[in-house]
Amino acid sequence: MAGQHQGIRAEHGSGDWADVDSYLTGVVVHPDAALVAAVEDAAAAGLPPIEVSPGQGKFLMLLARLAGARRILEIGTLGGFSTSWLARGLPADGSMVTCEYVPLHAEVARKNLDRAGVGHLVDIRVGAALDTLPGLEGSEPFDLVFIDADKESNPAYLEWAIRLSRPGTVIVLDNVVRYGGVLDPDGDSAIQGTRAALELMGSHPRLESTALQTVGAKGWDGFALAIVT
Ligand SMILES: C[S@@+](CC[C@H](N)C(=O)[O-])C[C@H]1O[C@@H](n2cnc3c(N)ncnc32)[C@H](O)[C@@H]1O
Description:
single chain, alpha/beta, Rossmann fold, 7-stranded mixed beta sheet, 9 helices, disordered N terminus, binds S-adenosylmethionine, S-adenosyl-L-methionine, Cation-dep_OMT, SAM_O-MeTrfase, transferase, SAM-dependent_MTases_sf
């Protein structure tokens, strides 16, 4: 599939997606040494390289600032790369909860968050998110929710995001295009979960939503964005 898309890129003369991402990251995004080290250390610890790109991470940081977020919820921490960007979008007295299933991922994330200077703002809840999210009831609302864990649970995570929201809460659902796989109604469980969540985003009476495709170092993918009304 990647080869096919390489051909499409060349035909349109758009250059190499990853090279353009590198260029944009160097010229515009400027991740600091702690953020660069976060990705390197996650890889060295054997974590899969499935974190957001630097440009996407900074987009999340800016979104947090645009939303004036004081409390952020993330589902899917990995090594804490997106967590670090999001936490840097918080004010000094803000806070963030991030849910992660794998203890090793949480351990790597804790070190990365401390090095990024935001560890004191972030509470990592280790366990299956569907088990840890109910523990957040009573401490809502969150101003921004980033959903980026096991895709089959996306509809349930979206329901939790709404339950823990207030009018104006921003919800971001990652990886919704999956190299076009989202078009396949008979796709795997990740595609089924993503399609169901997108349908919910498009039909839920309390959500105003959109979805955008992206290309870059992470290939052809996209995200959906909603605001709770
Ligand atoms: C795509 S990665 C997250 C990437 C991260 N948001 C970033 O961009 O830096 C997905 C993470 O979700 C975690 N995960 C998978 N199933 C989970 C579950 N049921 N509950 C919580 N976390 C889960 C995985 O272990 C993995 O670390």
